[in-house]
Each structure stands twice: as C-alpha cells, then as structure tokens.
Amino acid sequence: LKMSWFWLYLPLHLLATTCLCHSIKAPTTSSQQSSKSSLFNFYHSLILADGKETTIHLLKDIPKRYYFVLEEGRVLAPFSVTVTPCDVPIEWSILVYKPPPGKATPGDHNTQEVSKSQRASSVASTIFNYKGNSVETYMGMSSHSALYLLEFLSTERDTHITVYLTTDTTSGHLYPELPVDPRIDVIGIGHTTVTLAWKHSPSVLEHRESIQYCLLVNEKHNYKSLCAAETAIRSSGMKLPPTLALSLSPYLLEPQQVMILSNSELSIINKVSSGEVRQVCVGTRNTYTVPNLSPSTQYYFDVFIVNLLTNASAAYTGTFARTLEEPEPKVTELKDGKVIHVVLDGQKQKFYSLQYQARHKKIHFTFQLCRGQVRVHITRNGKTVASENLSGLRYFSLKGKLLDTYSVQLRSTEESNSSVKVQASPHFHKPLFPLLPESLKIKSFSKLRTCRSVTIAWLGTQEESKYCVYRKRIEEDQIWRELQSADRCSGPESRHKSEKVLCKYFYDLNLQRAVTTETIKGLEAGTLYLFDVYLFGPSGIPVRYHSKVVKTRKKC
What we know:
About 5% of the residues lie in helices and about 40% in strands. By secondary structure, the protein is mainly β. It folds into four domains: about 45-100 and about 125-165, Mitogen Ypm (Jelly Rolls, Sandwich), CATH 2.60.120; about 175-240 and about 275-325, Immunoglobulin-like; about 330-425, Sandwich (Jelly Rolls); about 440-550, Immunoglobulin-like (Sandwich), CATH 2.60.40.10. The N and C termini lie far apart (about 90 Å). This is Protein NDNF. It comes from Chloropsis hardwickii.
C-alpha cells in the first residue's frame, strides 16, 4: 500500500509500534472521538489483508481492530467488507480517518513544518455499524485516499468470525452469488420425507465445475452461515474436519458420524445429543428430497452454495417443515389357532398391529420370523408384558384374566422387507409348530466329501417327525444372496421338484442320539450346492433348517 497523507500526522516515535499490539481493551469508539482516543485505537490494530478471507478470533468483551488504506492516485476507490459471524452475535463497525480542513493534502510534502498538534488532529467518523449474527456486507466508494479502521466485539462469549476485504470489484467474487430470491421452497411433505427446491445461483451457470449446493438438516434451528453450522456441531462434542460437507475427500469420520455415498451424493450424519445433523452435497441440482426423517417432527433446512476451489460459501434463506404424523396402523383381530402371515415394508409400512381378546386365563403366542429383522411388543390391557427382537421361532406363555385384551405390535428394524407368522392360542398342548431340536444347523463332513457325493447331518427330537432334504446347484456369486434372501417360513412347495432328494422319518427318546446323517449322491465334481432340510410336525407346517453350502471335490 502506498503512503497516504495520514502518516504525516502520526507522532514519529509511535510509527515503530504500529501493528505490534492488538486485543487490548479500550473504550468503544463513537462517531466523534477525541484525537487521543482515535490514535490509541489505531496504534493497537492489525493490517487487514486485501482479497483474502481472514479468520479472526474474538475474546469476550475485548475489542479487536484491523485497518486498511485505500490507494492514492485513484479517482474512485471502491471496496467491500464482508463479515461472517461463526457463532454468537457480534458488534462491528467501520471508521474512516479523513484529513482535517486546511491541513496537509497528499501533495503537501513539507512535513517538517507540521506541528505536533496538527499530527494528531485527524478526524475519525463511523460510517457503518452492525450488531447480530447475520452475514453482512458493506460496500463503499471513496474519491480520495483514506484510512479505514474495523472494530469487532463479542459480548456473549469467545468466538470467531471471518472477514473478507476486497478493493478489486472487477475480477469476480470470492463468494458465490445468491439469486434475487434466495428463499428455499418446501414443495412436498410426507411422513418421512421433505422435498425442497430453490432458485439457481448465477454462479452455477458460470462456473458449473467448481460450484455445488450443500444442504444441512437439523432439528434445532436454521443457520445463517456454513461456519456457524460447523461451530454448532463442534460445540456438541464433534470434531469436524474443515468444510467436511463440502468435499468428497476421504476424511476419517468420528465414531458419532455416518457417511453415506450414493447416486453421487455425499451425506454426513452427525449423531449429536439434540438429534441428527445431516450434511448432503447434491452437485448443481436445485431440488432434493430429504429421506429417512422421523414422522411428526419439525426439521430446519439450510442450503449453501459453495465454491469448491476456495471453500467460500453463501447461505440461502433457511426454511423449516414438519413431517406428517405416522398413520395409525391397521389393527387385525387374532383368532384362536389361526396363523397370520404379516409382511412389513421397511420403507412405507414399518408397523403392524394385532389384537386378541382372551377367552382363557393362559394364552400362548407363537412367532416365526420368516425374513428380515422384526421387533415384537405385547401389551395386556395397555401394560407391556413382553418386548424383544425375534429370532427364528419364539413362544410367549402369558397368564391373565378372562376377556383380557392383548395388543401385539410388530415393527421392522431394517429398510428391507420383513415378514413373520403369528399365532395366538389357549391350547399349548396342540402346538402349531413341531417340537424343535436344540439347533437348526446342518453339518457337513469334509473328509466324507467326494467328487460325486456329500454327507450331511442334522439333529432330531424325541418326537417322530418327517424330514425332507432338498439340494440346489448355485454359483459363487449367488451364495450371499441365497443365504440372505431365504424365506425361513416357506416350505417345500416353493421348491422345484427336481431339487427334492428324499424324505424320511426318525426320532430318538435319547436326545444324545437324536441325530441323523444322509449321503447325497449323483453330484458333479467341483460344484457348489445349497442344501436345505425341512421339519414337519403334527400340524403339517414346516420349519426350515439353516441352509448349508457345500462344494464337491474337484479331483478324486
């Protein structure tokens, strides 16, 4: 920066101390200050960089001052100052120092004749002041060289801000531009989704490769800047890398964070004490449907337009919306001994309610988990009597009074579909499902494998039952899908006739000997096979053992 007239009025012994000290508590400047107070503030200031975003840390009740000087020799000197509070509201102001009437001008260089009183006679005036936590920009134009002082003060607590000064208004903007109407529109609300739309930023049309939109979702309030949002997340105990939501770089996440990358979208979910804070970057699309929200919950939505090259951002005007209430689940009546097959859609219908009125004091509920993950919650006359995650077959024997009302609520605990069979009956001596062995695992014997046969074994019970064995040839890439997608409630009727190997009856009163083996022959060498065993009880309803995958030997 070139020397301006103002330097001629500084006491010579103080020139060396300029910019060495800052953050010294001093009275807040007014529009008309004394010369002594003006000089004191100036001497304890730092130079504010031109064309660069500066991060400034503020201590509570201690003002911090920066200055800049406009160049000499320019007819008109435009400039702008943008201040972004990153937490609590702050106070900030801009003061300008002008030459006193009749004193030296930039062309008057006879400094030896300037008296000491004249050196300290510059006039300072406040041209702008603001208090709040919004992003504010001051744009000014000066027709002569001048010195400007910026003062920042936080009265609530220690905080930090960013300040951007530029005197070059012709080579573009650091911050992306907002549209004339920067509001976010809510164009759709569901039970677990909210659809948003916003006007395109002019910056997207000019710099599509380096500009993208990022969305922030939380349950507390809107944020007026991206740094304010990140500060709030950190204050909740998180440790966020800088501009985590703005980059697709492989940052290491904290244990409380979940990253989801799908369809070219990066989602960061922060598990904070007050709920989830989600950050999603959606490229240059200006519509987005926020998924997986909770019903009947108010959410706040903020959209930021981000320059990926500089990490500078601008905030749209935030909005909020309340998701719709979860519809009351349809209640189905349970009848004595009748089996109901319930299918739960993990995306749409996660809940299913059943009701049963007792005609006996003892009631037995039977649940067979067919697919997925399901949690059961049973109440009697409004009071909880059982609640747990289902696994395989589960029996509940409950004792109450005649005409007690039992409510059974089933809930899917995963996004994919789940299903379960349910029966309520007072007659436990006539069970719907067969007596089960200690384990439903199928064992194969590696030493007994050949190129053409496989030997398997499974446990039986003390009750004579029918067992049917099925086989299916599969490929390596089908193993996971076959094991995960298997319907554990489906019987042999769902299998192709060619897959059936045999059916047999057996039992043993001594459980230690209640085990049977079977050698399946006629297989192909070096081939994978999926084996299933079905157990049939007196009611004829099957129970499927856990599938077993075995590969025959390639060479014998």
